[in-house]
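Design a sequence for this backbone.
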């Protein structure tokens, strides 16, 4: 049983094909226990005490070990010092890339931006692939967004294409300038096939009409608004440790959950985002298509719940 417990503890660090959503530590995001490896170990030890300690001390040991697993304090974290509009859209995936609806979706996004400008927001965040276009090929749209960025900072998802290669990207417009951040970590078997070249090409040919995998950035993308350093994340990569390396103040994540509606995927994603927010002490501003947009902050500690 001790060996089984050890294997269960270690399973969070086994990522087949790079997919890391089987995370037992995240189970403790709700409740009073700390969502980390040490707390998980204390909880397994407490359970095993009930079976292997034969005297009355087992209940004292059980309670003491559980007490060690409780999260008492809330991690320190920063929030954006200005008003941000987190846009939320409900575009079904089967319609998102319909060519006849392209201009309609663009106009809807521009209207959302205008509303945010009129409401006095400093920045607006639109979801992953909010603009169903290759932004690198849309001169008129880019010019319009640059013009609007004189009044509001804009972050929006779209595709990019360069030298025959496609990227899943987020575009940042502020004060008449544009910055592109390409996705750093792709979804296994969604945006890339993590297999040797011969198998990858065969799968792409059979299931994806010969399409190539997306290309990736060489490092996570950062940008600044009024001196605040922001880490850019696109959907799945916001639930990867690699995106939390280096120095930054807050994370802005954009997601398209239209692929998964209706399903429990958005709830699992929300739990994992809060797990990483807690682990690294970061606020995550999450703009989503298909499920609610929200600001995700680190889990509150037990002492803060009752004494603050």
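Sequence:
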């Amino acid at each position: 049983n001790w060996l089984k417990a050890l294997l269960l503890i270690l399973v969070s660090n086994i990522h087949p094909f790079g997919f890391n959503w089987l995370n037992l530590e995240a189970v403790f995001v709700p409740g009073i226990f700390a969502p980390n490896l040490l707390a998980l170990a204390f909880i397994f030890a407490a359970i095993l005490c009930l079976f292997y300690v034969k005297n009355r001390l087992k209940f004292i040991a059980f309670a003491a070990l559980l007490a060690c697993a409780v999260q008492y304090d809330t991690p320190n974290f920063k929030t954006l010092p200005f008003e941000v509009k987190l846009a939320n859209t409900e575009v079904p995936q089967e319609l998102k890339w319909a060519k006849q609806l392209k201009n309609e979706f663009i106009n809807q996004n521009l209207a959302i931006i205008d509303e945010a400008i009129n409401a006095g927001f400093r920045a607006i965040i639109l979801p992953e692939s909010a603009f169903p276009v290759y932004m690198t090929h849309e001169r008129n749209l880019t010019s319009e967004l640059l013009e609007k960025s004189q009044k509001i900072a804009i972050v929006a998802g779209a595709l990019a294409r360069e030298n025959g290669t496609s990227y899943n990207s987020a575009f940042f417009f502020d004060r008449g300038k544009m910055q592109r951040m390409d996705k750093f970590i792709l979804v296994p078997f969604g945006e890339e096939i993590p297999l040797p070249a011969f198998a990858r090409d065969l799968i792409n040919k059979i299931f994806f009409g010969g399409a190539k995998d997306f290309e990736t950035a060489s490092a996570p993308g950062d940008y600044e608004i009024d001196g605040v350093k922001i880490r850019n994340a696109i959907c799945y990569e916001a639930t990867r440790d690699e995106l939390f390396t280096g120095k930054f103040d807050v994370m802005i994540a954009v997601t398209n959950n239209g692929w998964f509606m209706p399903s429990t995927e958005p709830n699992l994603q929300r739990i994992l985002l809060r797990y990483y927010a807690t682990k690294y002490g970061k606020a995550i501003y999450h703009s989503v298509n298909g499920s609610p947009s929200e600001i995700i902050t680190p889990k509150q500690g037990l002492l803060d719940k009752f004494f603050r």
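Residues 84-184+219-296 form a domain with the Nitrilase/N-carbamoyl-D-aminoacid amidohydrolase fold (CATH 3.60.110.10).
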